[in-house]
């Protein structure tokens, strides 16, 4: 009979959830079915829920549990009192002898197989109601690490049983309408992976904020993984593009973020199972995982997702002794998997007050409310529903109050922490890992919490103006004329994957330089030329953790481009090389040493004219980043576009420099476009067509230079008109010339978003595509469809008239 109380993990599967709970059943599934796919999982054994039931019966606890839960349900006693009553009774209970014997025997067998005396094990709780499609149950019950010896193991199993009635677990089951008395618990016992000597973390097989299904997100910290799960550190973060994982020549890590990683959890001293230690400066400046390890984990995530047929949430650990990487848990992802595929809810910030804090964004929403700063869970009684919850870390104990909050802001944590998971499940915008929220925000102050601006979440002073829209992508009409997106911020690229865009018509390198790299390219290419000691110190701080300042620039730029390209792969993504003006370049860190002062920067040293002259070293870094995206990462859908190219001779000079840096037009399918924004591009369109694969009309500059109107002049605003006949004649002319040469023509500018008549003109002129901002995509797509329908009707009418004339 005692054998039924313990099961080997490699003998169970998802069919055994009623016997060993969701977590342990999933571990058995990994051990049985995914070893051949290269997924390493840790074996061990689990107690059958019969052991839990026998423990409850032997100690006469069932009436006590039922009474406590009934008292709480009727609100005769508070949650804290009801839960404590049950937990204290269970911890005081005696483990029946036959159950204790079965657990001890299984532990001795584990010790013999590992040739260790009293091996260190992890004891994890696995409830029978866990990992349902609508609830992750992440962190609801307890895990005990570095447990050694039969006595300590039995104590840990009994503590796991008691953790079925933590306050957070009771509240969670209540929220999901799960019977409080009928649940049961299995304890899973596994040998410890020595991640205390390496690192551990969490990964998802879907982008956690946007639901983009072709990305694996991996978070990593040094030491045991509880710091990442609990959200007590700012971890490293990696994103891997799944479709290219099977390509031998590709290394599709599209993003890396170096976390602060200020603490790690390791084996304890002087009798403690675990303890937290500060990481060293060297550890904080380095990534926890190598690229090979990131890719290995990503492949495991894809294999697990494929096996289960749904997005998955996984925990992993690296053994510091062997270097092996293991998957510790796998459960269904419960938030993005439930979102309707055709529904896209968008928030747009219109205007906001002073920026107070930044951190990692959780969700994509915006919320406004008064601040409520709580230092510990003991203070939750004073929380006012509808407030913005501000705390150090959003521990699972906070779930009862989180469901009453408008938003959550924390000092610590990453986007795959338990805090982030629960915030997503509750549909709350959260900004985690701000570092100083509890010190900065004050009770009662009204703030706006915005997660609608990409990966970075922001907290603004006061009430911001914002809009909220729900789009049904199934209602967007199909068009012959392609509609592409203008994308500035790579951090927001995945937000728009549900839009049926035909690619990206304009991705601006200068945005990535200004917002992600934050330094002048030449200051990183030649830091010795920067004379300011302060600027040199700041440059060194920016490049901290990278092999060189040049590699920092290339890696950061490649990551920004790769995120945009991955979001739309395999559709074309047209990336424009940098087009700062000299005054804009000079404002970048270290830029003053490299930029001349110009009377009219708009007509000065910009675009193509920089790439083969004094900016040549900076352009070489841009080329290296583009080459890395296409060849190393494998995103060959990237098309390079050259801005402000004044003459065919200048085009030749730029193409030659690109070829010197490994970007040769036509090799490995590389296409190079040119911006058509100067009248000379139209007049000499045939010569430009011989050198480039396509044209992208920049309507703002083309209008400015055709009409002689400063596009930034408020006084001349009435004269700035893309629909002016002088401009439309040029546009129609370049389309005709380009098409005659077999070249495509796109237009990127604001006019198609604001002027339906201009869209109608472009469709009539035969434009191949228009590129617009994401927030205007649906409107422009509808205008294009209407213009095509009208043009089709006109063409059909003209054909009918010609037929009538012919018959007459």
What does this structure look like?
The chain is an alpha/beta fold. It has five domains: 2-192, ATP-grasp fold, A domain (Dna Ligase, domain 1, 2-Layer Sandwich), CATH 3.30.1490.20; 196-335, D-amino Acid Aminotransferase, Chain A, domain 1 (2-Layer Sandwich), CATH 3.30.470.20; 340-470, 3-Layer(bba) Sandwich (Glucose Oxidase, domain 1), CATH 3.50.30; 480-670, Alpha-Beta Barrel (TIM Barrel); 675-808, TIM Barrel, CATH 3.20.20. Helix content is 37%, strand content 21%. The protein is built from 28 helices and 30 strands. The strands form six sheets. An eight-stranded parallel barrel has the order 23-24-25-26-27-28-29-30, surrounded by six helices. It has a seven-stranded mixed barrel with strand order 15-19-18-17-16-20-21. α4 runs antiparallel to α6. The radius of gyration is 30 Å and the shape is elongated. Mean pLDDT is 91; it is low at 130-137 and 795-808.
- The CATH class of the largest domain is identified as Alpha Beta
Distance between the termini: 100 Å
**Spatial strand arrangement across the major sheet:** 23-24-25-26-27-28-29-30
Radius of gyration: 30 Å
CATH architecture of the largest domain: 2-Layer Sandwich
> What name goes with the CATH superfamily of the largest domain?
ATP-grasp fold, A domain
User: Which percent band covers the strand fraction?
Assistant: 15-25%
Number of separate helices? 28
Instruction: Report the helical percentage.
Output: 25-40%
How does the overall form come out from the CA principal axes? elongated
The third-level CATH topology of the largest domain is Dna Ligase, domain 1
Number of domains as seen in the coordinates: 5
Multimeric state: single chain
Q: Major sheet, described briefly?
A: 8 strands, parallel, barrel
What is the structural class?
alpha/beta
Give me the count of strands.
Answer: 30
State the low-pLDDT regions, or none: 130-137, 795-808
What is the residue-averaged pLDDT?
91
